[in-house]
Amino acid sequence: MAKDDEKYTWDWRAQIFPTIDPHSKVKHLIIQEYLQAYVQVLMRNALIPELRLSVVDGFCGGGQYNDVDGGAHFGSPVITLNAVREAEAIINVKRTQSRTVRTQNFFVDVKQANIDCLRAVLTAQGLGYRIDRDVFLQCSDFNDSLPLITKRIKDFGYGERAIFLLDQYAYGDVPFPSIKNIFNNIKNAEVLLTFNVDSLITYLSDRKSNRKAIANIGLEQHIPWSELAALKATQRHEWQYLIQRCLSKGILIESGAKFMTVFFITPLGSNPRTYWFIHLANQYRANDVMKSIHWRHGNHFSHMLSPSLFVGYDANRDVRVTSQEELVLGEKHHFDGVTNERICTELSELLPQQLYAKREQTFESLMHSMANYTMADEEVVKRSLNVAVANRDLEVRDKNGVSKRRKGESIRLSDVITAPAQSTFFFL
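== Three-Cys-motif partner protein TcmP ==
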């Protein structure tokens, strides 16, 4: 995943590689785990013989980094290729007839030096034989390469399943019309997008040049320009939260995706700029799987996108990075417990609104209606319903109306939830 010229330079012959930052390693872990989960979820039915998947890395970089321990850390191209092969091995455990995951992988970078280095890295890792077979290296601007890649994904067939990794350095390299084009033209596309929200907000002002920059990425209409100066003057801290909410809503609308989850990432440093690692998809299951991965890697939470609780990773709170345990004492030291309390508080406010708005609905319908407004995945929501179901404040039956659930954790997606006529019960 390529970055700025000064810090991110690749040269295979001189063995020059950028040093990987802790926050980027977490991002790589999320990509790796999601790809493995993606394959396993789609191949859950043991009768499916083959999965076809296209992976597009629009800012692939040179493929290798220096780790702080002196070893090599491979970039997203190697990570994605290995993750898919590992997932294929997992779905074939204890099977006599193997199932296949066929992929085509497009690694795109605007710099020829990065593509040359990536070619050498893939070859050194024993993956060179796949180049021009199912691995395609392109020196191009991602937006320019998108039409041809889209055609090849559609020609690949089998449901047009594609995952786009768009780790842009700034916030303007991938305009949202390009992302909407992906969702409009590729049936089962998903996008993992890096969005430098702090960089955008830091310099946000109602000037012609600034408005043009925001217009170029398709988000100008979602910024309250006429109120910006007053917000900065009267709400010195809160105005940034308000802009973040406007941006998150705008991103979902302008992307053309149905579901979005935001994982915020804060680099190590005394004055770091937080960015969003955004997952966009049209399938609810994809959204829920990604949330469960975010929970595993989160070490901090935020209400900036209130009323929802959003999880993220802050390198300054990672004792493995800072080696300073005092930085994570108290509330931050007990992230899991404190976050559980916070999410329960949020759900106690959010769930009644969803249930009273539509007194009878499936659990799946409930999850769809709140997917973009909370980081709670299915398991968290089910646990939060335990008390209400056990006390019969909620009635939950299977889709046929026969079996009655006795606890929230037993609920299935197809179950029907009936809320009381009067809003007199409490979940938590």
